[in-house]
Amino acid sequence: MEKLKKEIHELVDKLEKGLCGEKSVESIVLIHLKQLLQAMEGSDKNESELIGAIFSELRRFWLDSVPWCSNLSKDIEKLIIMFSDIRQ
What we know:
Blueprint: H1 2-17, H2 25-40, H3 45-65, H4 71-87
Helix pairs in contact: 1-2, 1-4, 2-3, 3-4
């Protein structure tokens, strides 16, 4: 889980350094990522379920709204795969 948190932090840093509008895809992804990091600070079962729910929301947003071949899409896909591997 620590490696996943590190990857999320790196993507948050990358998105915060970029210029993005308030309603942009990047800013919405940033909200999801910050929610994930906040939920990951806890370690009990409720946080685990919350993390899964946030990842589900991020995945849905990624599929519906993030341009498919963009770098952002690839970064999100990497996080989703890492999370899936942890849950198995």
